[in-house]
User: Fold Leucyl aminopeptidase family protein from Gymnodinialimonas phycosphaerae.
Amino acid sequence: MSMTFAQASSVALPIVLVSPEACKDTLATLSETQAQWAAFHGFDGSLGQTLVLPGDGLAGVLIGTGTASERARKRFAIGAAIAALPDATYAIDALPQGQEEEIGLGYLLSLYRFDRYRTQSAAKARLVAPEGIDAQRLERIAAAEALARDLINTPAEDMGPDALEAAVRSLAGEFRAQVMVVEGADLLAQNFPLIHTVGRASAKAPRLIEMIWGESGPSLTLVGKGVCFDTGGLNLKPGASMGIMKKDMGGAANVLGLARMIMASGMDVQLRVLIPAVENNVAGNSFRPGDIFTARSGLTVEINNTDAEGRLVLADALALASETPPDLLICMATLTGAARVAVGPDIAPFFTDDEALAQALGRSANEVADPVWRLPFHDAYEPMIEPGIADLDNAPSGGMAGSITAALFLRRFALVPRFAHFDIYGWQRTNAPARPKGGVGQGIRALFNALPEVLTKCQK
Assistant:
């Protein structure tokens, strides 16, 4: 699909963005017929309200911008309203200060359609890139978001570990990156025991996928959980919980979306992407509750729930990343239901001990309307992940602080000065402006926006 702006056109219909405060004054500038038309339709500048003005054909469009509090509750609503307009080319007369990028990106993201299995009607409205925005940058971000959405939305039958590897190779080919893969029994031979353990019961071989791009600048390693389907293993999930487990590779999908943004922008960075890609299935060789395994780092892990498998595959990948410590290590995973209980589906919680990184992410999230929230690496909970019989417990009993204990588990393997872990949902439960129900990017726009500042500080 094309998620781009239209070329400048002399026949573009003007869009006038109208706030509730300015609505009366704006309507006073219209012709008598248009003003009566607006009054008849009750146009008052409410958020996302649209009104096509009559004239010699179509004269233009009014779109309400709503109040600041309305926009905060319903981000991208203006861009989505533009994308829903009738078939024509449009140009915005003037963009409200501070909303330029959100409106432009909201329009582009609203063009997304997942049409692999069913033809979807495309948006008919074409928007000329508004003045004052970096149109190409927003188009690159939209393309990266579309990649993440497509990967998550694709069912596991067509997005197993092998297909995820193919997606990485396709992305690498586009940007001349290198790809290396360790697969199947070779995982044991090359000391990735936990990745092999989780994936060994699947008919589709587990693998560690690595992509490298860039030869200069600070080093950045991205690690994404690639559990392409999660039955829960022998601790089998109930059907209601298993229904959307095609999204359990959402961490990998988001990492690849972020990698696409970075490479398409030509950022001066040495990028490394690590994706442990597995299916957590049930078979005669499934790993069991009570089993103890030795991770790549040498730490032993007791399995108290086979449905806490994401942290296991990430442990080996993070250990590998730490062997050549990058300036910044980022992990993204659809890891715990506890994170959803804590902050809900719309916010991407993250953990870091780096104050400068946390502050940069907070600012960036507000700037690009990509909500994130910092949760603590609470050291007092460390004993909760220590079972006594082994170094670590993959699923502490009791259910308390589940997202934090999972993050503490991962931190034991991320032995680098600067590390952040994102426990994302990766799924939009209902349709929202510019975010249809299904797979979604979370945290990656905030990260992309913050990276130049953060990586500069990493090298000081």
Notes: The mean pLDDT is 95. Residues 140-458 form a domain with the Aminopeptidase fold (CATH 3.40.630.10). Residues 135-153 form the longest helix (19 residues). The radius of gyration is 24 Å.
